[in-house]
Structures are given as C-alpha cells and as structure tokens.
Amino acid sequence: MPEPTLFERIIAREIPADIIHEDDLSIAFKDINPQAPHHILIIPKKPIPRVGEANDNDSATLGHLLIIARKIARDIGIADSSEGFRLVINNGQDGGESVPHLHVHLLGGRKMQWPPG
Ligand code: AMP
User: Fold this and answer.
1) Residues in Cβ contact with 20 at an 8 Å cutoff, skipping those fewer than 6 apart
2) How far is CA 57 from CA 30, 78, 79, 102, in A?
C-alpha cells in the first residue's frame, strides 16, 4: 500500500485542518498558506491523485467538487458576478501541483490577475 497523502491524513483526522464542509464524496478546508482572503481546498475523499489520472467513471465526483465550490462561494458571499472567485486545479509538476491528491482551490476576496503566473 502506498503511504497515505497529506490530504488523506486530513480526511482521516490524523492531521488537523480547518474543515468547513464534509459530505460522502468530499471535504473542504482552509488552505494553510492562503493566497487570497478566502482560500479553500475542496477535495474528493476518493484518493484520485490528479485530474490527469481520473477515470471516466469519476465524472460525478469531479462535478461534485465544483458544486461544493459553488455552495461554499455562496456561503461566504463571493458568488455574485459583482464579486467573484477563481477555481484552480494544478496538475503535475509544470502545473504547480505539490500534493498528489486532487484538490480544487477556491480563491476569492480580492481582484485576480490574468494571465496567472
Ligand atoms: P497545490 O500546490 O496545487 O498542490 O496545492 C496544495 C495546497 O495545499 C497549497 O496551497 C498548500 O498551501 C496547501 N496545504 C499544504 N499543507 C496543508 C495543510 N496541512 N492544511 C491545509 N492546506 C495545506
């Protein structure tokens, strides 16, 4: 068995995190190194390493992560088009991924720049 990832250990409550949402398929918690006033990670409980390794039958789980992101954005009051937020998924080394457990970054509370770095 491979070593559990950092995020699997957060799911198992072996490592503390500021968890703001949990359901059967996903968990969401505050990023430990926030890059915006709101910076939340939404992750599947299933240990999918990254989008590039998701299966065709993961579509419900992947879609669920976006629905949860939308719910959280509404809850914290940044879902209006007058405010807004950014969702980011880093995939692989060139994509900037540092934890090999799929996660959606929800960033908001400040004006985002484009193109991203
Ligand atoms: P990425 O670089 O896209 O793989 O994102 C990984 C994210 O996990 C980074 O934004 C880190 O700040 C965040 N992170 C790492 N360790 C923890 C932790 N223990 N609790 C919450 N967020 C973490």
Assistant:
1) 28, 29, 30, 40, 72
2) 28, 31, 29, 15
Write down all domains in the chain, each with its CATH number in brackets: 6-108 (3.30.428.10)
| Ligand 1 close to Cβ of residue 97 (< 6 A) | yes
- Look at ligand 1, atom 20, and give the residue with the nearest C-alpha: 32
Query: How confident is the model at residue 1, as a pLDDT?
Result: 73
9 to 12, 16, 103: CA distances (angstroms) = 5, 9, 14
Reported as type and span, the H/E element at residue 68 is: helix 59-75
Q: What is the mean pLDDT of each run of 10 residues along the chain (117 residues)?
A: 92 98 98 98 98 98 98 97 96 98 98 94
pTM, full prediction:
0.97
21 noted as active-site residue: no
Is the CB of 51 inside a 6 Å radius of any atom of ligand 1? no
Residue 30's pLDDT is: 98
